Amino acid sequence: MALETPEEYYARIVAAAGEDGRLPVAVEEMPGWDIYPYEIDSLRIKPLQPLADEEPPRRGEAAEDCWCTDPGAQQPVAGTAWRNERWRLIVARETRVPAYLILEPLTHCDLASVPSDLATEMGRLVVEIAAAMEALPSVARAQLLRFGDGGAHLHLMFLGRPRRALQLRGSPLLDWEENLPVVPLEVHQANAAYVGERLAERVGGTGPSWVQPA
Questions:
Q1: Which terminus of the chain has fewer CB atoms gathered within 10 Å of its CB, N or C?
Q2: Does the residue 180 lie in any domain?
Q3: Backbone angles phi, psi at 160, to 5 degrees
Q4: Rounded Cα gap, residues 149 and 211, in angstroms
Q5: Quick one: residue 21, left, alpha or beta (phi over 0 = left, psi -120 to 50 = alpha)?
């Protein structure tokens, strides 16, 4: 069987849309969950846009244009909770959940092109970062995200779901996060420092000497 083309996939979506080009709200899926943050009756999906001619370039698509090729990229930067010779764990500029950290390799690569030696280490780091975040008193779960549509350099995002805030469970946490109040900087720093210190103890590297966000 031939692999499906973008046009064939898109045609199936268009066929499911109404005359106004809008898909119906899938009330039996995420919008119907009790943890979904919006009321179903007031939801309306935007009209479908046509397929683009091609995927737009991302920041750092060419390695020489990426931040990691700057001579200073290998040096500690403000907002680093942990780092070693190959990776850095940076603090998001602001967060509305107890912890929001981003793991990046210092070598230019994307998820599909991580060298095998880094891939092995990445697996260990993912486990240790999640364990450290879930040891925070205010965090129940560490949620791991990767999109990569804006930047071509791999960045794994770890969000700490607030403990006992059951309405914020699951993938709707992203929608909630945009609407919650900002966590005070000193709280954000303290939580990031805890994760960085524990990571340094478990896997080596340098802890949060520069934990304040840039």
A1: N
A2: yes
A3: -90, 115
A4: 27
A5: left
pLDDT confidence band for 213 (50 / 70 / 90)? very low
Quick one: pLDDT band at residue 97, thresholds 50, 70, 90?
Answer: very high
> Which pLDDT score, from 0 to 100, does residue 209 have?
73
Domain that holds residue 33: 7-42
- Asked whether residue 178 is assigned to any structural domain, the reply reads yes
How far from each other are the two terminal CA atoms of the chain, in whole angstroms?
51
DSSP structure string for 7-42? HHHHHHHHHHS-TTS-PPP-TTSGGGSTT-SS-GGG
> In this structure, is residue 1 part of a structural domain?
no
CA distance linking residue 119 with residue 110, whole number of Å: 11
Reduced to 3 states (helix: H, G, I; strand: E, B; else coil), residue 81 is strand
pLDDT class of 83 with cuts at 50, 70, 90: very high
- CB environment 126-158: b (16+ within 10 A), e (fewer): eebbbebbbebebbbbbbeeeeeeebbbbbbeb
CATH assignment at residue 192: 3.30.428.10
Sign of dihedral through CA atoms 72, 121, 151, 25? negative
Q: Tally the domains of the chain.
A: 2
* Pair 78, 37 in one domain: no
Residues 181 and 113 in one domain: yes
Output the DSSP codes for 140-157.
EEEEEE---SSBSS--EE
